[in-house]
Amino acid sequence: MFRIAIANSQLEEMTDNHVTFRYQDNRTHETRRVTLPGVEFLQRFLQHVLPRGCAKVRYYGLWSAAHRADRTRARALLTALTVIAAPHASEPARASSLGDFPRCPHCRVGRLIVIAVLRPSWSRPP
Asked: What is the DSSP string of 68-125?
């Protein structure tokens, strides 16, 4: 994510019509050599160039450094929800009251219990 498409040290030989370069195979982690025609090399290389005005997205939304406190709060809330939602054997009355809730609109199997409705926040551009 933070590296350039190909470093100068990976280029081995450039002739008039061909370019030879090294790369590491993701599956086997072996270093391999490839010789491509110059036009095909440029086509592959330019796939990694961003258009003018586009910023490289590294961390956005809840994963950005500015939202560290929100991320911590979200983890705490998710932990609390799993503890609350865990059924206990000593609560048969709760299981019978699940018939009052509507079915999940996506899977149509589970029961839908609305805890909160989150509205989109358009304060920051993507």
From this structure: HHHHHHHHHHHHHHHHHHS--TT-HHHHHGGGGSPBPTTTSSSBP-----PPP--SS-
Are 36 and 44 within 8 A, CB to CB?
A: yes
| Residue 47 token pair | 């796939």
CA distance 83 to 77: 10
Q: What is the pLDDT of residues 68-120, one digit of tens each?
A: 899 888 888 887 655 444 455 444 444 445 557 788 777 878 787 778 877 77
pLDDT of residue 94: 47
Confidence of residue 126 (pLDDT cuts 50, 70, 90): low
Instruction: Decide: helix, strand or coil at residue 23.
Output: strand
16 token code pair: 């008039």
Closest by alpha carbon to 100, among 82, 114, 88, 90? 114
Instruction: Give the sheet arrangement for strand 18-24, strand by strand.
Output: 11-14, 18-24, 31-37
Give bridge partners of residue 39 from the DSSP assignment: none
